[in-house]
Amino acid sequence: MQIKVGPLAVFVITVCLIGCKKADQSVRQKTEEYFAIYSDRSDWEKLLSYYSDKLQFEDIILREKHDFKGFVEFYNWLQPGFEKHPDYPQSLILEELIIEGCYAVGMGKLTPFYWQGELWNMDGYGDFIITLEFDENLKIIKQTDWVAYPPGVLAYLGKSFASDSVAFKP
C-alpha cells in the first residue's frame, strides 16, 4: 500500500519542522544566556528577568516548592554571606545541555564557595540537573532542581533526610 502525500501536507510538515528547529535554537540561546548569568552570579535582576511571574519552582532534594515570589525569597542572591571562591570565578560549570522544544535540561557541577566566611567544598558533591520549561515569550515558567548538596548545606538549612535517605547522583 502506497501513501500519497499532497503538496499541502508536505508544506505543513516542513513548516512544523522548521518551527520546531527555530524554537529549539531560541530556547538553546536563552538557556545558554541564563546559565551564563547564573554562573557569574553577579546580576540578580538580570537572572530574575528570565522568569515568568507564573513560575513554578521545585527543589527535589530540599523538598521546596515555590511560586515566583517564593522562589525570589528562596534563591535570594542578595543575602549577605555568599562569596565566590577566588579559584572559581563561576559558581557552576555547565557540562551538558539538552534542548527539546520549549524544554531545557542543564547538567553540571557547582563550584566551591564561601558562606558566612566558611568554605563549602564540593568534593564528591555539587552535581546538578536543572530542568527549565519556557513559555512562548521565552520566559521560564517551570524550574526543577536536583542538586547533590553537601551535608553541611543540608544541616545549615535545617534539612535532615537520614530517615528518608534522599540521595542524588547523576
Short description:
The protein has helices at residues 7-40, 44-48, 68-75, 151-156; strands at residues 51-59, 64-67, 82-84, 92-100, 103-110, 113-115, 118-120, 127-134, 140-147.
Key features?
170 residues, alpha+beta, six-stranded mixed β-sheet, 4 helices, 9 strands, 31% helix, 32% strand, globular, disordered C terminus
Largest sheet: 6 strands, mixed
Shape: globular
Please identify the structural class as seen in this structure: alpha+beta
Give start-end ranges of low-pLDDT stretches: 1-6, 8-20, 162-170
Give the helices and strands, then pairings.
Layout: H1 7-40, H2 44-48, E1 51-59, E2 64-67, H3 68-75, E3 82-84, E4 92-100, E5 103-110, E6 113-115, E7 118-120, E8 127-134, E9 140-147, H4 151-156
Parallel strand pairs: 1-9
Antiparallel strand pairs: 1-2, 3-6, 4-5, 5-8, 6-7, 8-9
Model description:
By secondary structure, the protein is α+β, with helices and mostly antiparallel strands. Helices cover 31% and strands 32% of the residues. It contains four helices and nine strands. The strands form two sheets. The protein has a six-stranded mixed sheet with strand order 2-1-9-8-5-4, covered by helices on one side. Strands 3-6-7 form a three-stranded antiparallel sheet, with no helix packed on it. Mean pLDDT is 83; it is low at 1-6, 8-20 and 162-170.
